[in-house]
Each structure stands twice: as C-alpha cells, then as structure tokens.
Amino acid sequence: MELTKKRFKEDFQRTLKEVFAIDIEEASAFEQYFSLGRLVKAYTSDEWQRTNKRYLEKQVKQVYYFSIEFLPGHLLKSNLLNLSILKLVREGLSELGISLEKLEDAEPDPALGNGGLGRLAACFMDSMASTGIPGNGNGIRYRYGLFKQKFLNGYQVELPENWLRNGNVWEVRKENKGVTIKFGGTVTLIQDKIGKLKPVYENSEIILAVPYDIPMIGYKNNIANNLRLWSAESPLHGEGEYSTEEQREDVKRITEVLYPDDSNYEGQLLRLKQEYFFVSAGIQSIVRHYKKLHLPFDQMPEKIAVHINDTHPTLCIPELMRILMDEENLSWEVAWDITVKVMSYTNHTIMAEALEKWSEDMIKLWLPRMYQIICEINRRYVETMRPLHGEELVQRTMIIRDGYIKMAHLAIIGSHSTNGVAKLHSDLLKEKVLHDLYTVYPMRFNNKTNGIAQRRWVQLANEDLAKVLDETIGLGWRRNPSEMTMLKAFQNDEAVLAKLDKVKLKNKMHFTAYVEEEMGIKINPKAIFDVQIKRLHAYKRQLMNVLEIIGTYLELKDNPDADIYPRVHIFGAKAAPSYTYAKQIIKLMNSVATLINNDKTIQDKLKLVFIENYGVSLAEKIIPAADVSEQISLATKEASGTSNMKLMLNGAITVATLDGANVEIRDSVGSDNIVLFGLTEEEVYQYYHDRNYNAKEIYETDPKIHRILNALIDGTIPGIQDEGHDIFDSLILHNDEYFVLKDFSDYAEAKKKIDLLYSNRQAWNKMSLLNIASAGHFSSDYTVLRYAEDIWDVEHFTKIK
Ligand code: 26Q
C-alpha cells in the first residue's frame, strides 16, 4: 500500500472527526485508538476483499481451523507491522503529539481463550496469513472473555471481562451470512418418494448464528485471511421466533461466556450447546461456500480441509455427515468417504480428566439427529473392525460405551489424521493414551510440534532485540526465522553479546517500572528475573517453584550474608474458578510474596512478584524481560508448552524437565545451554507401574524438605492456616500426585546452577544468544507449513525458506 505520512495524518484526523466528531486534543486514548483501528481496517479492506476473491476465482483449497478458543491479543500494532506502515504511523502520530504506545494500551485484549490452546490457534491464524495458506478461523464470539483476575487479601477473585463494552473495531458483522441451528425436539426418519430416509424435525428450538469476521493480515504479502466468530441471536421472524424475554435471554446465553476451565471436564449442557452451535454454523457456511464452486460433492476433499482443534469441535464430523446426507442427498458411504478425507484432529492433552465424553442421554435429548448419526458411525465401526481386531479391542476403542460418547474416539475414527503437539506427546499418544486406536489406524497418527508467531513475540514485543538481530545478521530472519541460526556465528563476539545484555537490561528496567507503578513493589533490574507464566495447575508444579523459594528464604534467614545472587521470581497464572487446590496455591504464593518482599533482613536478595490477570498483553511485557524460563511440569504431563518457546526466543535460559517440547528445545539449543533436572518419562511410568512412590518417606528423611514443608503449617508463613494444611496434606497424606518432592532436590540443584551461571555474565550472554539463535526453528510459520503439506494438502502462496 502506498501511503505517505502526510496522507496518513490527514486520514487519521478525518477519521477521528467522522467517528467521534472531535479533534485530536479532545480525544481520549481510546477514541484515538478506535479511530486509528477504523482507519487501518479501511486500509486493509482492499487486501481482504481481493484475497477472498482470488481464493474463490482460483478455486484454491481452503483450510477451516475450528477452535472453541482464540487468543489473538492486541491487533493494532501487529496489523501496522504486517501492512508495512508501523514506522510511518508511529512517526505520523508522534508529529501529532500522540504516542502509539498509549493507543496500543487502550486496545481491549480479546481473552477468548484459556491459555496454550487458544493462543496456538491465534499464532496459527497469523502464520497461515503470513505464509499465504488459504486459511479461515472458525470460533465463538464470546460476549465475555476469560474472567479478570484480582487478588483480594491474596485470594483470587474473578470479575467479568467485558471486552466488547466499547465495541470491537476490527470486526465486521455479516448478518446476511447468518445460519440457523436446531436444538432439542424430535427427529423421525421418514421414507420419501424415492425410498430415501429423510429426517422430519418437530418442536426444535431454532437459534440464529450471526458471523463477525476479523481480517487476519499476512506479513507484508497483500493477503488477509478471515477469522469468523459466531454470535447466538434469536431468529427475527417466522420459524422459531421467540415471544418471551426469558427465551431470548436463553438464546444469548449460548455465546455469553467462555468456560474458564481448561482441564477438568464437566459435562454441562451449555458447553455442549456452544460446541454444536459454532460447529454447525461453521460447517453450514462451508457447504454454502462450496456450492458456489459448482463442483460435485465427491470433490469436496480437494477444496476443503476442516481442522478440529482438540475434541471441542468434534461434532464437525457428524454435522458434515448430516448435511451431505439429509440436505445434499448423498449416500452414507459417499458422505463418510468425503468426511474422513476432509477432517483432521489435534490432541492437546494426555490428562484423563480432560478427555471429553458426553452422556448419551444428553446428546439424544438436545442433538437428536447428531445422536442418530453418531450411533450409526459407532455401529459401522464395530461391525467392520470386529472381524479384523477382535471383540476386546473393539470394545475398548468404540465411540459409545457405558452410556458415554467419547469424543476423542469419534475424532480419530471420523478423520484421516490425528496429531500430538510435540514429539514426546505424539509418541505417548501412540504408546499409551490412544494405543488401542493406534493399532487400528497406525497411519493416521503423526506429530506436529507446536510453534509460536515470531513476529508477535520478537518483532512486536521486543523491538530492541529485533534491531540487534537486524544489525547482526541482516533482515532476512524477519521473513525466514530459520535465518536466526546465523546468530550462532557471533557467540563469541563481545560487541554483540554486550548489545544483547544491554537490550535485556533495558527490558528489565521497563518491566521494573511497570511493577513499581502497578504493584508498588520495588525490584532490582540487576537481579535474576526468573519467570513462570502459565495457567495454574498441579501438574505444572508452580508449587515446587514456591517451595524452592521458601527454602532459599529460610537459608537467607539463617545466614543473611549467604552468597546468593539476587533473584526476582515473577509469576503469572489464573486458576479455574472451581479448582480449589490451584486457588490455595495462589494464596500460598501471595502470602510468601508478602512475607519475603517485606522482610528487610534478607537485603532484597529475594522477591516474589505475582502479576494479576496474566494474559497475552502482559506476556508481551514480561517475556522480553525474562532471564530464566521455568518449564517444570512432571515429565509426560505437559503436551507441548509454548511459553517455553517464547521465552527462549527472547533469550531466557530454560530450567526444565524433559517434558513436552522441552525435549526438542534441548535438542535444538544443546544440553549445555539449558538446565535440565527431574524424572524422565520412563522413570515416571516405572513408578506408576511399581506403585512404589512414597512422598512421606522423602519428607521424613530429607531435612531440607522437612523444614520447608513444616513452614507451610507452623505459622512461618502468615495467613495460610487452612491452605498450608491442605497443601501439606496433598503432598504427605495423598502421596504427592505430581512427584513434587521426588524432583525437588534435583530442582533446587538446578536453581543453584543458574545462580552460578548467571554470575559469569559473558558465559550467560553466550548461552542467551544461542537460545535466541536456536528459536527460529519453533516458528509457527514452519508448523503450519507442515500441517499444510502433511495433513491439509493445501498450497501456500508466500515464499518461506
Ligand atoms: C473442555 C471441556 C469443557 C470445558 C473446557 C474444556 C477445555 C478448554 C480448554 C479443555 C482444555 C482446554 C485447553 C487446553 C490447553 O490449552 N492445552 C495446552 O495446549 C497447548 C497447545 O497445544 C500445549 O502447549 C499445552 O501443553 C497444553 O496444556
């Protein structure tokens, strides 16, 4: 796009006047942000329209990424970067007396996801547009995003996240593209004139799904893909019109709020409705699009790929079957062949409690046609596989069993590809968790290690680091992240190392100022910034981290002059509102923070900063300032992790167990440049097998651990009467489910090693450089290209090396 600064300034002032009828001086930061967003969207509209037209005219194969969560983060700066006008706009605004940074902060952060899975979906949208993959997102436009977290007396409280309060400048409501969705009632199959069975619906509730589209702008390539989020509304007239206010409220409730639980699956009706709602709307709109191509349906797999992000959108499978059979009159066999070829599925967890299963009764009652189709898929599966694999295996792998419908089984049986999100995770799926289905469909299983959008996590979040990269290895890495390995040649270059050191310190000072301003805590930017940012979960073992902090604190109390490098521990973590244990750990962390942050005797050698309301925008502030990245889940539990990649990319050194993608990070950066500790996958499974883990014994024989655990219950840490006891009991009475005590000593050693390494700054900076240089490998550009090649079979239109 040809834009001059002069023209931009005029455009901006005019837009402000058009939208709010005011001049710059009178406008709030939000009004300025909103007007700039309006303008940027207008600048994009040509690209957006052209991309769409080109896809349609050339009849290219398109991917539809179905995800119940998307966590895109702020879009303003990202859009400016990708449109190549970041510099121009920043300067233009500055000439008008406006700081772009202020406008960025005024943008609401759409928290339409819980964590890793939702953020991955957003990185994939960015990467699909940037690599020129014709990709569409399909999700839910939640009226309220993930709750806002506040700490009251150290306890987490949840407040509604009203992100749409002032409207969303990036979206376009497309009422004419609305579709209707049916819930409940009865479905009877009646033979039509030619003897085909046709469903007749009675007494169904009808809901209108209205799409809101958001452009996903590619990096300097004139491509804008589409993210489509659906909102539930009452039908306007005719069929299904609602007469009472209460009924209309019930309809709106479907897309009112995001479920804040990312682990414990609870079979709630509203969640089921959300799943079918966005699935049915999305599949209907895909079929509508496909019909515009005027091709026979058996060619659908050549034009459409549907990706199922975790099991939440698995109903895509029976829904496409329904439309192909009931509305397009295809036979079961033809419809099934098309469906399996079109669908693919990603698994994100091995935790049994997170695997979705729905009660048969509920699906029968609320989605009667889906129920019929799932029963038939199951019946045919059993019939075909029984002679090949025997009764027992079929019993264990079938979709419906003991009154429940297992969504992962449906997803695997009804698609041509099932992938895990890191090598270790994919292997575990094959060997353990989904082993039985793997023996039935060995060719369907594959690995696609996660990745991150390096544009957001360096080019936007850490502009100073990006500049150093430009100066050192040229600009090519911005488009081809693998070129970051060129940095390795500078590992002994003192000038480059000094520059990296300077950037890190500047970022730490920036963050230090934020912490002081927002939280009133003074921290030392020269201390080690040790970061653990992720959802709060027992398996992620934030508790082990806090226990180590308590241990160090006790050491310092014994010997205030102990030779310990000053450390600032930074945490960000939300707990699901119903997850009592996770909330108790939050309270513990806050109480430890109060204790150590106010204890003068330890001479500021140890601080704990627990940032409220962690999310994408805060991650962008924390990650560039991190020295140490905590990736300490019990081996086998974290499917991949993605904050590990973001922190590495920003030069942090990883302290890690060999879990998820940490294994590949080790392979990429080399064992000398990562600090590993803890049980391995084999050892963990050995304990499970032998059932001989004994946490109490460790407590009784290890004096250091004994003392730290006693601090939980003897009043050393004020304000945690109940929590301290419950956490203590979880470890000692309930035998420490995630082997915190088993790994503790090894972990404490690893932290000592970090202290030592950090004191040699030259060596540390070299490690940091090697981490940055090795991170290009984890760009989600490569990840989506691998999906495109191996799973979706779609072409892409932007050159990436
Ligand atoms: C399911 C049913 C009912 C309510 C909620 C849910 C639900 C919602 C979100 C279940 C799971 C999630 C999210 C899971 C998630 O974020 N998993 C993470 O995915 C990342 C991307 O692949 C991995 O890096 C992480 O290891 C994995 O924990």
Structure explained in plain terms:
With 801 residues, the chain is α/β, with parallel strands linked by helices. It has 32 helices and 23 strands. The strands form 5 sheets. Strands 1, 2, 5, 6, 9, 10, 11, 12, 16 and 17 form a 10-stranded mixed sheet that branches. A 6-stranded parallel sheet has the order 20-19-18-21-22-23, sandwiched between helices. It has a 3-stranded antiparallel sheet with strand order 13-15-14. Strand 7 (186-191) and strand 8 (197-202) form a beta hairpin. Helix 6 packs across helix 32, helix 13 runs antiparallel to helix 14 (391-397) and helix 21 (542-558) runs parallel beside helix 22 (580-597). The two termini are 25 Å apart. Residues 114-117, 120, 259, 261-262, 265, 271, 348-349, 354, 356, 421, 450, 638-642, 660 line the site of ligand 26Q. Ligand 26Q is lined by residues 114-117, 120, 259, 261-262, 265, 271, 348-349, 354, 356, 421, 450, 638-642, 660.
Compute the number of strand runs: 23
Helix content: 40-55%
Cα shape: globular
How far is the N terminus from the C terminus?
25 Å
The oligomeric state of the chains shown is: single chain
**Rg computed from alpha carbons, rounded to a whole number of angstroms:** 27 Å
Bound molecules: ligand 26Q
The biggest beta sheet, please? Answer: 10 strands, mixed
Average pLDDT metric: 97
Low-confidence stretches: none
